[in-house]
Predict the structure.
Amino acid sequence: MEVAGTIEAVRTSVKAARRNGKRIGLVPTMGALHVGHVSLIERAIEQCDFVVVSIFVNPTQFGPGEDFAKYPRPVEADLEICANAGVDLVFNPSPEVMYATESLTWIRVERLTELLCGVSRPGHFRGVTTVCAKLFNIVLPDVAYFGQKDAQQAIVIKRMAADLNMPLEIVVCPTVREPDGLAVSSRNKYLSEQQRKEAAKIYKSLRKCKEMSKAGVTDAKEIIAAMREILEQIAGGEIEYVSVVDSETLEKVDEIKGKVLVAVAIKLGLARLIDNIPV
Ligand code: PAF
């Protein structure tokens, strides 16, 4: 496995792979790799011949007072995970390499980024789309892989790629969960033992939603009320949103019909936890 810190090194390796007819897959990450990331890497290895993982804690997607400084950066462990998974190339640039010049150019996807997480994290998606566009331009992948756990991020990136005619496919892989249902996330590390236990109620609320919808309940208000009842039992938790939204426009819907996304964000201790299920 090659580890590259410069854009030139990535371009050289990817160019050679492409010359050999290889299909290039990219898994963009901020490191602190866990089984959720590994599932993306495995999918990329299944579908591509040359797999690149980027590890970069992107400063431009963190707001003031957010966890940029304390975001975990276990680079050695991450490299080992990548090597064991069969990754071909890890791109692990410094902020100076990624943002060599002061950026005057930003990619902002309208509307979709102003809802859900966009309300409490203004500027977050602008940082995500800009860094992803940069990574896509550096690696030139045929396919890039994202997790369903960050559903809004995946929808925003798909829209950016479509709107800007980016020549790549975006694949979204299912959320990986702990045995008690909590979605695997690098930020789960911020939870105390007690908070970690409480956090399982997030998935419990999503399961409740699924059950109600299966039983024929279509009224979004009724479903949200039942979910809130469960989420309010999370000791020390602060509900940011519980929303039933159209899975393309992310606009709130009153009734569950067609494809909707039920999404939740909760602050718990030092962590902000998000989760969702497509219904
Ligand atoms: O999902 C993440 O880890 C990040 O938002 C991403 C897509 C790697 C961009 O920095």
Notes: The mean pLDDT is 98. Residues 186-278 form a domain with the Pantoate--beta-alanine Ligase; Chain: A,domain 2 fold (CATH 3.30.1300.10). The radius of gyration is 19 Å.
